[in-house]
Amino acid sequence: MEEMFCKQNRKFWKWKNQTGDEPSAERVLELYGTIAEESWFDDDITPAAFREELFAGSGPITIWINSPGGDCIAASQIYTMLMDYKDDVTVKVDGIAASAASVVAMAGTKVLMAPTALMMIHNPATIAFGDHADMAKAINMLSEVKESIINAYEIKTGLSHAQLSHMMDDTTWMNAKKAIELGFADDILADEKRGSAADTEGYAFSASAVERTLMNKLSGKAFRKPEKQPKGRPVDELKASLYKKLL
Fold first, then answer.
1. Is the dihedral of CA 172, 173, 177, 180 positive or negative?
2. 64-79, pLDDT tens digit by residue?
3. CA angle, 76 then 113 then 144, to 5°
4. Do 203 and 230 form a contact (C-beta atoms < 8 A)?
């Protein structure tokens, strides 16, 4: 009973169609919200529950993602399980696939994004305490985690290690078209009523670059010398002069 309660309490995923009765039947999985609100690390129950449900059926899977991210260890295991799944996995991002959620998206045989959807990649982060040796270990750990994430991005996008590393350093946000241009996604979700995908501009921006630009502008204004006011004649003097001309 306690194990069942833990499974239900920690589940951050939801199967909309998990019959698996027919090999060709599409299974639908939703990953909405934070991935593993509680730590997945050193947790035998939650990963086992996800794997059991994933491999309980067969046939193509559609995964809807709208998540700000979460536990990178959870994302890594989910990515690996999906890569190990023998049938096609179509990922559809209808809101946001940020941080750890973007790693899960990389497991898709095909990745589709809504015209209004966003994807974000950045460096992994953690909380650490201790002396300088503990801090050094934390830094090394984060470096290795970053390398593991880059591996997933590299396989999907074909971008260079250096480019992906810089994009993560800069906390890069991408809209659907830019994600497609860079290889993080394959296509835009089509509007079946219109029969084609919406026409949107591709863009990506670096959060840290935007912050630096803003700070530079603010600093420039703070130290800028006040502009000199143009000199003019007093109003009373102008009135007196005009009065003399009228006389």
1. positive
2. 999 999 999 899 999 9
3. 25
4. no
